[in-house]
Amino acid sequence: MKTWPLWIAGVTALAAVFHILTVFVFPYGVMNRAIAGIAAEAGGVNKAIYPDRPTAEARGIVRPSPDLLYAACVYDVSDRPVKLSSPVPETYWSLSTFAANTDNFFVVNDREVRGKRIEIILAANEDTVPEPGVPLIVAPSEKGIVLFRSLVPSDEAVAEIDTLRRQAKCEPL
Length: 173
Fold this sequence. Notes:
By secondary structure, this protein is an alpha+beta fold. It has one domain (1-173): Domain of unknown function DUF1254 (Immunoglobulin-like, Sandwich). Helix content is 27%, strand content 29%. It has a 4-stranded antiparallel β-sheet. Strands 6-5-2-8 form a 4-stranded mixed β-sheet, with no helix packed on it. β3 (93-98) and β4 (104-109) form a beta hairpin. The longest helix is centred in the N-terminal third of the chain and has 39 residues, at 4-42. The protein starts with a helix and ends with a strand.
């Protein structure tokens, strides 16, 4: 009967270890795998990829929607800032940035963009002088992922949306 305090202590210690792994280690492992996959497909960092339209088997992006076309890149701001740019189609569109721990730290969508094109400077710190009129976003990690999404409202619009999506860029300054 006197062993139950040991069992409680053991279970509590095990729960604490799993909690630490889940909160602090697992997100980095997930992102490291995603970063490696996107960078390999793009041939490096700060280069966009334009995957095929998702199907039920697609899993390059977590839970992809077949109604969206995606563009993605691995950003690396360790040496210099990165310029993110894209035309904004006449349909739903968004740009999301994810840090090395999976945190989404910046999002903008078609309703927030003034004009038909967006440009953003992603940098490691606020000391970067952005181009005039181009917003500066400070990344919380040196590497992460940028995800562009464009809604395809109909099969007839796929070619037009795809042409615009392929103009999405992640380029070092």
